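Exercise: predict the fold of this chain.
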Amino acid sequence: MLFRSALLALDQGTTSTRAIIFSREGKALGSHQIELPQHYPQSGWVEHDAALIAEHSQTVIVGALKDAGLKAADLAGMGITNQRETTVVWDRKTGKPIHPAIVWQDRRTAAWCAARAERSAWLSEKTGLLLDPYFSATKIAWILDKVEGARARAEKGELAFGTMDCWVIWNLTGGQRHVTDATNACRTALFNLDTQDWDDELLEFFGVPRALLPEVLDSAADFGTATLDGIDAPIAIAGVAGDQQAATVGQACFEVGMIKSTYGTGCFMVLNTGDQRVASRNRLLTTVAYRLKGKPTFALEGSIFVAGAAVQWLRDAMHLISHAGETAGLAASIDSTNGVYLVPAFTGLGAPYWDPEARGAIFGLTRDSGIAQIVRAALESVAYQTRDLMAAMRDDAVPPKELRVDGGMVVNDWLTQNLADMLQIPVVRPEVIETTALGAAFLAGLQTGVYASLDEISALWAEQQRFSPQRPAAEADRLHAGWLDAVRRVASAAP
């Protein structure tokens, strides 16, 4: 029977939870997905129902097995990948969250961070991150301070914190395992990159009791066993990585200088820097790409808060389109936006600007501007922001020769070609664009013996299409200059 080498990936993302079952060769055999409601209780706040995520995680696992016509006993194991900085605190005894999960996009702690901006360099030295609401630490502290009695209970060891991987594992194992991996731990702002452990000085600075925190494991490790209703056998949880690190593994970016960019709700570019921590001069993040057998591989990362979320906004808030698939045709229907720029700073600007108070705007509208111009401007904003990141990467490390792309947005040929035109380097789309889930499956396969090495995984990666630049470099420069002007106009007055 083929299937003892099949691997299940649970991908708990910002807008959905899904499970995909892959063959050893990386081909999808079955899947199941459930959309996740977004909650915006105040301006700049974003929350999720953590209990619903736990429920959905179990539902999609059962659904994917059914879709593939497989049983749990046919699986070698499962990997988990997740939206990263999103924070949940729960009661260890009841397993119930004490507050809605605070999502990575949430900006409610911006003022706290701004008031302590002088500590950013110190924080960066320890964690590779910036002092920003994006990361988990200030979210944890906010929950402990705002929920009555939470801080005292946390100090007594009655509460647990986790990013979504940790929360899902807790639920899949019936509360038996409180664990995370190094790629998720390093996004909390509580994890020391050099010691590869929680840092007491950071815990004190943010006011987070150590008793809240999970054990940190390698990205391929024994995370426990999933037992749930509706499956015939327990499933070994054998791989975990945050979504962008998992995509780095799924894209087989194992050599120094290889770079990938994932286009989902946000956009995340990751450059492998090997065993060297590279400190960015351009406010990029230094992060763990993956950790195997106790040895971390590092990366530089640039984060754009809004990519696919701009298309969702066009659909759900503005009602300019009825589904995302319309955007390519609308963008291609005109030669240019005629100077229209959309800056999607709905929750501030990410790298390299890190301006949490910036807000979105559309510039350059005329009487002739219509839906096509605004839609095209939204797609172009993804390429402009990617170019900003790429310029920072070039300055900090090595000039990339090509960019491997993945995520739901890159099925759009117009967008992918526009990326190549704006970056002036080839953009490569792989055979499997669900590389986040694939990376989680690969990590689980490493742990369970389905794969003997990273080289074996690398050999499975395959190119589907290569997009070469078609626009003159001077034109790309001119268009990008207009974008930079638009960004300057939405910037906050804050330093």
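Check your answer against the key: The mean pLDDT is 93.
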